[in-house]
From TrEMBL:
<feature type="domain" description="CNH">
    <location>
        <begin position="1"/>
        <end position="191"/>
    </location>
</feature>
<dbReference type="Pfam" id="PF00780">
    <property type="entry name" value="CNH"/>
</dbReference>
<dbReference type="InterPro" id="IPR019452">
    <property type="entry name" value="VPS39/TGF_beta_rcpt-assoc_1"/>
</dbReference>
<dbReference type="GO" id="GO:0034058">
    <property type="term" value="P:endosomal vesicle fusion"/>
</dbReference>
<dbReference type="GO" id="GO:0005737">
    <property type="term" value="C:cytoplasm"/>
</dbReference>
<dbReference type="Pfam" id="PF10366">
    <property type="entry name" value="Vps39_1"/>
</dbReference>
<feature type="repeat" description="CHCR">
    <location>
        <begin position="470"/>
        <end position="668"/>
    </location>
</feature>
<dbReference type="InterPro" id="IPR019453">
    <property type="entry name" value="VPS39/TGFA1_Znf"/>
</dbReference>
<dbReference type="GO" id="GO:0016020">
    <property type="term" value="C:membrane"/>
</dbReference>
<comment type="similarity">
    <text>Belongs to the VAM6/VPS39 family.</text>
</comment>
<protein>
    <recommendedName>
        <fullName>CNH domain-containing protein</fullName>
    </recommendedName>
</protein>
<dbReference type="InterPro" id="IPR032914">
    <property type="entry name" value="Vam6/VPS39/TRAP1"/>
</dbReference>
<dbReference type="InterPro" id="IPR000547">
    <property type="entry name" value="Clathrin_H-chain/VPS_repeat"/>
</dbReference>
<dbReference type="Pfam" id="PF10367">
    <property type="entry name" value="zf-Vps39_C"/>
</dbReference>
<dbReference type="GO" id="GO:0012505">
    <property type="term" value="C:endomembrane system"/>
</dbReference>
<dbReference type="InterPro" id="IPR001180">
    <property type="entry name" value="CNH_dom"/>
</dbReference>
<keyword id="KW-0472">Membrane</keyword>
Length: 793
């Protein structure tokens, strides 16, 4: 074999070590960097390989004694001298590590992860490139003379044997008899092959095949070592992946059997194990028919008490994390669990979520039942209906059962349960009828039939609260078809029609003529029956009635002696008075009622005042005043009516004239003189609202002038004031006319120069001789046609 190169200054070398690193150049090419340290007496010589020879890397490093063992890792060189170990950096820094103990010669070895292995007494201590010792230590039967790594094992040379230890866990695996072995080395780039040498022999050591070692390691529950060994196998990647997954799955199962539930669930989560197989580890969480198909490596542990509580807590955390990952990942965990045999896993994401949510609910029942409702309320809740239903019934979780039915859209079942519980006993969890009311309020238009069906028993037993099913100020209730609800109430609960209509009109401001008419007719019917005694006048008649909105005008009207409210004190709560008050308020405020139609429903002998108000709304003031004067004989009420209509109605300017005519027509009989006096008093009090020519034409010729003195003075003053006002207004208009006339003359006198270079400011074209044009106030010129187009736009 030809000599390639030699190190000239290395004569008398005692020990040496190489350091080989791979670097990537700027072009992406890999290159090996080889460095060499040689110990000559008490000096360390550093070299690097270049151009097929070793060249000096730097100055020599001095040592306090002759080195007996040396290793180079990265930028650190570990040296064993007599009695102690040193750590040197390539820049010359030096650090003392520790003493060698009672071993005759120091031994230094290096590991593939960059650490050094140093022997002290019967132990091997691991030291990092920074000189910091690790807690792990390997204990040998005797002090080793040499230590070599053959991952995942560490082999030490003892006086009469070779001892094999594993990394993590640090345990002895094997002892091989070998006498007087002086040297032990590994083969670079090849695992599982070592060479040992004695003064007279050389041995080749080979490791047992991985597929033979794995079962033995797993039987000893050395899962970490088995996983490391499996990663070094030469199997195809897919086979290797399945092999490692199977080892770790059995390890997770072993964690579970050892009551290390948290680590077990963490490993199951990392392995993406089929959740159904994990749930099967627990009793009573999977259907027995499904669970019996799953086979596990060993018999499952019996869990009870604190162990069961801790196991369920770990399972809840595991399932919650699985659920979160599934929500954002279309891929489902569908493969069979490597740690179990005999069945295939769940195939679809929906099946997985169904099993997970159902199991979570069962876990909450056993650990913290307060969380059940929040789980069932989730929009994406996948609890299995039949199984969850059975479990909740078994534990008497009626409120949660209602939530389940509601979330699954089984509203009939939920409402039947609520009704059953409420009618059975008020002491039950769902015994309050308001639970049914709240439930019905949330259903919306698409479930109107159910709402009407199950509201019946609530309206019968609790009419005031039951009416909130149709009047609560929530969107679902407000958008219900009001016509159908009105028909339903009229058929089955007529006593609630009025409060419902009042809420629709006053709270929701509904403008439907139908509802306004129905409310008016309802008032008429109720008042009529109360008036003739067909209905007892109890306060229960008011149940559910809405408060009348504030109206200053109506309050003023109600304060009139002619108003119904004058018949009783303000504290009077008689149903008849209350309904009359409400009917008058509707007459006063509703602009959507068909009063002609309502008028036909008023009986002849009742509600005369209300009839008069309605006639007034229709502009039929003569008929309205006839009722006040001829039927009710209420002259003060007639005056109040005239005062209100004169201000409120555009066609009510002649109401006082109509009333005056009625008063003067009542002159026959014994009271004829008194009505003339009432007519004269009306002329005096409201003369400013009666045109003089009309009043004078109606009054009898024999009325003394002195009786009309105040009225005539007032009329003349009013005419004079009006004439002065007209004169002033005429003067102002004349002044405005003169100003505008002057402005017009000024504008017309302005000269306009139209040149050939002038362009239309809109179309930017020139003006021709035949073009009509427009001059804008700012002086801009425009074609007449363009101006017309701009106006239209």
């Amino acid at each position: 074999m030809p000599l390639i190169s030699s190190v000239k200054n290395s004569k008398g070398a005692l020990v040496f070590s190489t350091n080989i690193n791979t670097e990537i150049s700027l072009t992406g090419e890999k290159a090996a960097v080889i460095r060499l340290v040689v110990a000559v007496k008490r000096k360390l010589q550093l070299y690097y390989w270049k151009s097929r020879e070793f060249k000096e890397l730097g100055p020599e490093l001095l040592l306090p004694d002759t080195p007996r063992s040396i290793e180079w890792n990265d930028e650190s060189i570990c040296v064993g001298i007599r009695g102690e170990y040193l750590l040197l950096r390539t820049n010359g820094d030096k650090k003392e590590l520790f003493f060698t103990g009672r071993i005759p010669e120091p031994t230094v070895s290096s590991l593939s992860d960059g650490r050094f292995v140093l022997s002290k007494d019967d132990m091997s201590i691991f030291v990092g490139p920074d000189g910091i010792s690790f807690e792990e230590k390997v204990k040998w039967k005797e002090p080793p003379s040499s230590v070599v790594e053959d991952s995942p094992y560490l082999v030490g040379v003892l006086p009469d044997s070779l001892e094999v230890h594993s990394f993590e866990p640090w345990i002895q695996i094997q002892s091989v008899e070998a006498i007087k072995v002086k040297h032990l080395c590994s083969v670079t780039g090849k695992r599982g092959v070592l060479f040992a040498a004695s003064p007279s022999q050389i041995w080749r050591l080979t490791s047992i095949p991985v597929h033979v070692q794995l079962p033995a390691l797993m039987s000893e529950k050395l899962f970490g070592l088995a996983t490391k060994l499996a990663t070094m196998s030469d199997e195809p990647p897919e086979v290797l992946k399945n092999q490692i997954q199977r080892i770790q799955s059995i390890q997770a199962f072993d964690f579970f059997c050892q009551r290390n539930f948290k680590d077990a669930m963490t490993l199951f989560l990392q392995l993406e194990t089929d959740p159904s197989h994990v749930i099967g580890l627990y009793p009573d969480l999977l259907p027995e028919s499904y669970r019996s198909k799953i086979q596990y490596p060993e018999e499952l542990p019996f869990l009870q008490g604190k162990d069961l509580e801790n196991a369920l807590a770990a399972l809840i955390e595991y399932l919650t994390e699985i659920r979160r990952s599934l929500q954002g990942n279309v891929k489902s965990l569908s493969g069979p669990s490597p740690g179990s045999e005999g069945t295939h896993g769940v195939k679809t994401k929906k099946q997985l979520l169904q099993i997970i949510d159902t199991t979570l609910l069962k876990c909450y029942l056993k650990t913290n039942d307060a969380l059940i409702a929040s789980l069932l309320r989730l929009k994406d809740n996948y609890c299995h209906l039949e199984e969850t239903e059975q479990v909740l019934i078994r534990y008497s979780k009626w409120g949660e059962l209602v939530i389940l039915y509601q979330n699954k859209g089984l509203h009939r079942k939920a409402l039947e349960l609520l009704k059953e519980q409420a009618l059975k006993s008020p002491d039950l969890p769902l015994g309050n009828h308001m639970r049914t009311v709240s439930y019905l309020q949330q259903l919306g238009c698409e479930n109107l039939d159910l709402i009407l069906e199950f509201s019946d028993w609530v309206l019968c037993a609790h009419p005031s609260e039951g009416l909130k099913i149709f009047t609560e100020d929530v969107q679902e209730v407000e958008y219900l078809p009001r016509g159908k609800i009105l028909d339903y109430l009229m058929r089955l609960h007529p006593h609630l029609v009025l409060p419902y209509l009042e809420h629709v009109i006053y709270s929701w401001e509904d403008t439907s003529t139908l509802f306004h008419n129905k409310l008016a007719i309802g008032y008429i019917d109720r008042i009529t029956r109360l008036a003739i005694g067909n209905q007892p006048g109890f306060l229960s008649d008011f149940v559910g009635l809405s408060p009348i909105p504030d109206s200053e005008e109506f309050k003023s009207m109600c304060s009139s002696p002619s108003s119904v409210t004058s018949l009783t004190s303000a504290s009077d709560s008689s149903p008849l008075i209350e309904y009359k008050r409400r009917f008058q308020f509707l007459i006063e405020t509703s602009s959507y009622c068909s009063w002609e139609a309502v008028l036909t429903h008023i009986p002849k002998d009742v509600l005369q005042e209300e009839r008069a108000f309605i006639l007034g709304r229709l502009g039929r003031h003569k008929e309205a005043l006839s009722i006040f004067v001829n039927t009710l004989n209420d002259l003060q009420g007639a005056e109040k009516y005239c005062s209100r209509e004169y201000v409120a109605s555009s066609n009510g300017k002649d109401v006082y004239v109509i009333l005056l005519k009625f008063l003067l027509d009542l002159k026959d009989g014994s009271d004829g003189q008194s009505y003339l006096e009432e007519a004269l008093r009306l002329v005096d009090s409201a003369g400013h609202r009666i045109r003089p020519e009309m009043a004078l034409s109606l009054l009898p010729d024999g009325v003394p002038v002195e009786h009309l003195r105040e009225y005539l003075i007032q009329a003349l003053n009013s005419c004079g004031s009006e004439r002065n006002l007209m004169t002033l207004l005429r003067g102002l208009l004349q002044a405005d006319f003169l100003v505008l006339k002057h402005q017009k003359s000024s504008i017309e006198s302005t000269k306009i120069f139209l040149k050939e270079t002038n362009l239309c400011c809109l179309c930017q074209k020139k003006f021709t001789n035949q073009s009509a044009f427009v001059r804008l106030p700012k002086g801009l010129l425009m074609h007449y046609s363009c101006h017309q187009q701009s106006i239209q736009q």
